[in-house]
Amino acid sequence: MNTRLAIxxxxxxxxxxxxxxxxxxxxxxxxxxxxISDDGSKEDIKAVAEKYVGRLDxxxxxxxxxxxxxxxxxxxxxxxELATEEWIWLFSDDDxxxxxxxxxxxxxxxxxxERHNIYRFNIEMIDADGRVICVKDPHPELESGFDFLxxxxxxxxxxxxxxxxxxxxxxxxxxxxxxFPKAYCSDDASWITFTGEIPIYTIRHExxxxxxxxxxxxxxxxxxxxxxxxxxxxxxxxxxxxxxxKMALLQLARPWFFENLGYINGxxxxxxxxxxxxxxxxxxxxxGGSLKEITLFHLRRTRLGGxxxxxxxx
Length: 314
Known about the structure:
Elements: E1 5-11, H1 17-25, E2 33-39, H2 45-50, E3 58-63, H3 72-81, E4 87-90, E5 96-97, H4 101-111, E6 118-126, E7 132-135, E8 142-143, H5 145-153, E9 164-167, H6 168-173, H7 186-195, E10 200-211, H8 224-241, H9 246-263, H10 270-284, H11 290-299, H12 305-313
Helix pairs in contact: 5-7, 8-9, 8-10, 10-11, 11-12
């Protein structure tokens, strides 16, 4: 059997890892190889992976340094490099794929004559107990990189790294994933880049469940400043990529920035807010005012925020 799909799982936590691997094992089509990339975890990733030897074509690899603690994109890239297959599905250690995903992917390849660089599933967000907590409108069947970007800036789509399958040649051509702090927005920037002039193709009927678990890096509170700066680096990246659309993108990106700043867990120090404000002014080419605006926005989310917000506002 000619295996063309690699399911690559960068792993660090075991809390939901068994459930993730069980969903892989339950695939109706098992024409794939699984690569477990242990990011120097202190937990026993190998023991969980070994439970699936014989049920899956599975290969375990441990990296001794915890790259995810300082450069998560580095770990994504080195994990993908383990695979020799033509197509890569960068999955995770706590998410769930529905049983027909792999079969639906190969059906989509056949139906499209393998024309696209990126295939994706629709996604739903689940909590630690597996309850669905967020679903948005399905992705369009075909979507250009620019249209994908516009929908993301308008918060009309739910997107995470785990529902995308990409051609490894596109990954190599672009030297891996776009690198932003804590990989925040790195996946969105990479899909825009990897897809090139060929639209993203959406696979219907099967879904991926992305887990807002409270234990993954997306939920970590200590990275608030890095994530905020990553949002601004993403804006710079897209403006550089689509210079003819600069003003329109900046107009969309400003409210998008504040919306996503509100989603970031953790408190910011005043020094961090000053740093973010400086980057904000540079990104949006404004002369001032952002320090107060960002401070006020952040204060509204603190315990004394209501009182301080009213005092500073006036």
